[in-house]
Write a structure and sequence with these properties.
The protein is mainly alpha-helical and 331 residues long. The chain folds into two domains: 198 residues, no CATH class; 73 residues, no CATH class. The protein contains ten helices and four strands; from the N terminus they run H-H-E-E-H-H-H-H-H-H-H-E-E-H. Strand 1 and strand 2 form a beta hairpin. Helix 2 crosses helix 4. The protein starts with a helix and ends in a 6-residue tail after the last helix.
Length: 331
């Protein structure tokens, strides 16, 4: 049995995405951000075309640019045919048209995905103005690219059940220091009007669609380096020492709770805003209470750590919201 026609587009899309990651992650690659944007846009266009073909029962003409045929007398006929390129092959629609189609039923792509792709397109279009010292742009490409890969991973899994777990699907450098973290508040190449306009455009889009780690899709995602406690008992990251020369690390109770921003009232309010069919009833409690036993979802804090009889309070991580997404209908 022949493979569905959309599968070739999916495979080529994955190839483009992996190429974008590999080039970005190469050490001291001078055209890193520009090349990543170009290849990632290609990956998105192929993925959206694959989805359009799949939704149209495998018909390749669903991605062709169609024009009305001309009759022998020069009259315009109702019959439509693919517009041909210089080598007489059918021309296909571009990425903006793909996004326009995917905004409609039955696909209904999320607006954050669309805006993230448009940001990549702006970066590509401004690429000829980049210089290696444009650390402001490098920082934004990293944040936009990270969000784009996360969006891409979600959609290729949902749309095609494609397993990307065998690939290293993230952007480097995942280190304790990033060159772009040392940038000043103003653009290094302040005389480059194109760069200033690009950064302004990105900032405006970020303001309109702020990042939210509880959402499935984002237009940008920030990277922060933090110390975390290992969940594996055989992989201790920090060892106790009474040496006066040992490095001192202070972890406060507030640090431990940074990944758990919700208490019960704020979690309930968040879910009420997020779903059309949510009610703080017994069904809600039946879902929530079993999740509380898992450390990734809930952490209990004593209001007075020095008093064993002190009242305790539960705090919930943003990860728990993904579990409620499986049970309720989002607005």
């Amino acid at each position: 049995m022949k493979n569905p026609k959309h599968k070739l587009f999916v495979e080529k899309s994955v190839g483009a995405a992996l190429s974008a990651i590999k080039i970005y992650n190469k050490p001291d690659f001078k055209y890193r951000e520009e090349t990543f944007a170009i290849l990632m846009i290609n990956a998105w266009e192929l993925l959206l075309k694959a989805k359009i073909i799949k939704e149209n029962d495998g018909q390749l003409k669903s991605i062709y640019i169609l024009t009305n045929k001309t009759g022998k007398k020069g009259n315009i006929l109702k019959t439509r045919a693919p517009e041909l390129n210089r080598s007489n092959n059918p021309k296909t629609i571009g990425l903006p048209k793909c996004l326009s189609i995917c905004e409609q039923e039955p696909i209904r792509i999320d607006n954050a995905v669309k805006e993230n792709i448009f940001l990549l397109m702006e970066i590509r279009d401004t690429a000829i103005h980049f210089q290696h010292s444009d650390k402001d742009v490098g920082k934004k490409v990293f944040e936009i690219g990270t969000a784009s890969l996360k969006n891409y991973l979600k959609l290729i899994t949902d749309w095609f059940s494609y397993d990307l777990s065998r690939y290293i699907f993230f952007l480097m450098p995942m280190t304790f220091f990033h060159e772009f973290e040392a940038i000043s508040s103003t653009s290094i190449n302040s005389n480059k009007e194109q760069i200033k306009n690009l950064l302004k455009y990105i900032a405006e889009k970020e303001k309109l669609t702020p990042s939210d780690e509880t959402k499935e899709y984002n237009i940008t995602l920030k990277l922060e380096t933090k110390f975390v406690k290992s969940t594996e008992t055989d992989s201790l990251l920090v060892h106790y020492s009474d040496s006066p020369d040992a490095l001192q690390i202070n972890v406060t109770e507030e640090d431990a709770l940074k990944g758990f921003p919700f208490d019960y009232p704020s979690l309930t309010a968040k879910l009420r805003e997020r779903y059309t069919d949510f009610k703080a009833n017994q069904t809600y409690h039946n879902i929530r209470k079993p999740l509380m036993s898992k450390k990734k979802y809930c952490k209990t804090r004593s209001l007075d750590p020095n008093n064993s009889k002190s009242p305790k309070k539960d705090y919930y991580s943003s990860e728990i919201i993904k579990e409620f997404d499986k049970r309720y209908t989002k607005i």
